[in-house]
Amino acid sequence: MQGAPLYAVLIALEIEGRVEVGAVYFPALDEMLAAATGEGCWWNGRPARVSSATDLKRAFAVYTDVNAFAEHGRAAAWERIRRAVYACRGWGDAYGHALVATGRAEIMLDPIMNVWDCGPFPPILKEAGGYFGDWRGNETIYGAEAISTTQKLLPHVLRLIAGDAARDAESFTPASS
Fold first, then answer.
1. What is this structure's pTM?
2. Which residues 6+ apart lie within 8 Å of 158 measured at CB?
3. What CATH number is given to the structural domain containing 18?
4. pLDDT for residue 1
């Protein structure tokens, strides 16, 4: 994009409707994430883990294009999440999901995503201890949207997306676990 060399090579193996193996490589960074179901997630040869954060007020959220939230009917959900987290930055879809899998961000939101861009992320996030799927909590690459986050933050993120007034972002207190 505009000459920036941050792009990804994405590879996934789907077996009987479920992605079981995924790999993503960022040539400009010489950074690779790879995972297979039951085999862990590896980041440049080291184990990869999602963040241990349990409080949205300390979470770092990343996204691809801030304008896409309004274009795809997600402006209100984005605003609730934006207010609830510590900071938000745009990083592009593949790199944002990789940041979550490696514990460098807690939430990646994409209101529009193609299946081929989702491919490697279900096993990568799951094996790193996180979640990859749609905005309703379904682990899928076919939702035309995507979220990556930690298992601990997932229920809170889904509540904010749904607009649960009982758990407004202003008064969020994480559940103990």
1. 0.90
2. 135, 136, 137
3. 3.40.190.80
4. 55
